[in-house]
Amino acid sequence: MSDGSDGFPKGGLNRREFLSASAVPIAAAALSGTKLAAQGPGTTVPSQDVIRLGFIGAGANVRGTMIPRLLENPGVELQAVANRSLESSQRAADEVGISRAYSHWEELLRDDDVDAVVIGTWPYMHRTLTLASLEAGKHTLCQARMANTAQEARDMLEASLRYPHLVSQLVPTSTSYAIDNVVKQHIDEGFLGEVISVDLQRLQRDNGPGRRTGPNGFVDVGGELGWRHSRQYSGYNTLNIGSTMESMIRWLGRGTRVMAMTKVHVPYRYLDGQRTSVTIPDHVDVLYELMNGAQVHMRFSASTGHSNGNQTWIYGTEGTLHVNQESRIFAGRKGDSGLSEVPNGPERRVPRIVERQFINAIRGTEEITMVPFETGVHYMEFTEAVSLSARSGQAVYLPL
């Protein structure tokens, strides 16, 4: 799944690049809106045989994961790319065989040979680019996280509804698809009885790509400032709250009431040697309520050294389901002596199908399930509600 950084530097950022990352694109967006809108919807109509793709933000994940999977579909061509500079665009084009390199995303959207656009930027540009892409008549696949705020996500959904003949899709943030079928089966077929509570933790344990922790999950004091620490570029997105809620929506539906407490354990980070304040929390506790009244406790952290990582417990009136840090599933019913491991072979796991669905949806042969814009709006509203509750000390009711 996406780390959301495509088309931008990974790890530490040059201060000039970091501070200027949004200035040029947003200024251009303000100038380009009427020009793109004037073209109207449907100015490019893909043929049955060839779908020509454009990429806005073709970073490592797009080049290494998405493009190979997109090319597995017959009749797909890599038409154009626009990164933050012409040089970066040309490097990406040369690496993966994209025909045209542009210096700015507006040029790409003006290319009538581009049928569909993959957006791989940080969240702060997703609304701008999605609306512009749809207005230019392009099918649109947008990286997670959906946007900076719930309102931006709603704007994206509303735009997609204005252009129903165009495909609008999100890259999944969730990594739970491998266990979804088993978890949902146990819930839907009544193995658990009525779900009465859920206890879930998502604790980052290492400082690999895109992580926010120090070694072994300890507080990353003195660490570098990345886009995930920036309100400007991440908005309300915090840790992996959105991706977890994406899974919970599939399993148990949406929440109705949210209460949260958060903590910033690393209030300063370094950008090009200069200390910069951080306001996005690195430790979050959430309590929320499901539609049936069941309570869910969620804990997210990038500051829990030597923790046991991810854990999920779903408790029902008749049974219990547990997913451990290795994504192995265990279940037990009332009267059992304990939990037993549930088989989850390859035939039961949901593979990554986002790229296939995008292409097939454009051809009209498959519906979008991974992931529709509606789901993105729901997890963005939940993410924002967590922040609002933590700031106010009060419960926040959903939908916002």
Number of domains: 2
* Largest sheet: spatial strand order: 16-15-14-13-7-12-11-8-17
- The stretches of 5 or more residues where confidence is low (pLDDT under 50) are 1-20, 22-47
CATH topology grouping of the largest domain:
Dihydrodipicolinate Reductase, domain 2
The rough form would be described as: globular
CATH superfamily of the largest domain: Dihydrodipicolinate Reductase, domain 2
Written description of the protein model:
The chain is of the alpha/beta class and 400 residues long. It folds into two domains: 15-170, Rossmann fold; 177-348 and 371-397, Dihydrodipicolinate Reductase, domain 2 (2-Layer Sandwich). The chain contains twelve helices and 17 strands. The chain has helices spanning 15-20, 23-39, 60-71, 86-96, 105-109, 126-135, 150-162, 177-188, 231-234, 241-252, 354-363, 373-392; strands spanning 51-56, 76-82, 100-102, 116-119, 139-142, 168-170, 195-203, 255-263, 268-271, 274-277, 283-290, 295-301, 311-316, 319-323, 329-333, 340-341, 396-397. Strands 16-15-14-13-7-12-11-8-17 form a nine-stranded mixed β-sheet. It has a six-stranded parallel β-sheet with strand order 3-2-1-4-5-6, with helices on both faces. Strand 9 and strand 10 (274-277) form a beta hairpin. Helix 6 packs parallel to helix 7 (150-162), helix 8 runs parallel beside helix 10 (241-252) and helix 10 packs across helix 12.
